[in-house]
Amino acid sequence: MSARLQRTAVQTVSALVNAIDAKDNYTSSHSARVAELARLTARELGLPLREQQAVEWSGLLHDIGKIGVPEQVLNKPGLLTRSETAAMQRHTLIGHEMLRPVAQFAPVLDAVLHHHENDDGSGYPHGLRGTEIPLSARIIHVADIFDALTTNRPYRRAYDCETALEMLRVDAGRITDAAVTAAFELALRRYRAREHESFVLRFAHLLEPGPAAAGRSLGSCT
């Protein structure tokens, strides 16, 4: 990609992310954190730089389809009804269709469409399992769940970093890819140890105490 096209693509991504943040109270800064966590995980997995960048962009754009979800559903303080859940789940399909016509976004399409697929086939939109799920989507899935767990929601307090990691480990191989989950945890710990000031600046909320996770599964917390 030429430098000019690269700049245009970056500007487009920024505009799209700002549009999501303006609509969804929860998404504010969520996409940027997921992008950073996903990039670190991709690096830990040894992916080439080009693929690391694609994963990072996937993190920024994974929730772009929420633009097409009603605001009353996005920002509802309580649990969603069955029809509201269906509307929310359509954001993966909406995002994929939004980005598909733009050639520059081809590397992010898999993750945008499949970042809610579960390792055991219980996810959406297509019920893929294991390695049927593109690697980029498996990476975004772990980063997305972790950030959801460590963020305050209207119906629960944020979990602290160690509790969220424990919850990921418990459901690795069922909800998330086990190898990707292990790489995510290692990448997060390396980042925290090597770049502590940067870690605190970006993820200070991870250092705060949160509720215990006893008896909770990822499905009940995200």
Q: What does this entry look like structurally?
A:
With 222 residues, this protein is mainly alpha-helical. The protein has one domain (3-220): Hypothetical protein af1432 (Orthogonal Bundle), CATH 1.10.3210.10. Helix content is 57%, strand content 0%. It has 11 helices and no strands. The chain has helices at residues 3-23, 30-44, 49-61, 71-74, 82-89, 91-99, 109-114, 135-149, 161-171, 178-194, 196-203.
Please summarize what this structure is.
The protein is mainly α and 222 residues long.
Oligomer: single chain
Count of DSSP-assigned helices:
11
Name the structural class.
mainly alpha
State mean pLDDT (0 to 100 scale). 86
Annotated CATH homologous superfamily: Hypothetical protein af1432
Briefly, what CATH class? Mainly Alpha
* Envelope shape: globular
What is the H/E order?
HHHHHHHHHHH
Per CATH, the architecture is: Orthogonal Bundle
Helix content, binned percent: 55-70%
How many structural units, i.e. domains? Answer: 1
- In total, the number of strands is 0
CATH topology grouping: Hypothetical protein af1432
Strand content: under 5%
Largest sheet: none
Rg (C-alpha, Å): 16 Å
Unreliable segments of 5+ consecutive residues: 213-217
Q: What is the CA–CA distance across the termini?
A: 36 Å
Brief descriptors of the model:
222 residues, mainly alpha, Hypothetical protein af1432, 57% helix, 0% strand, globular
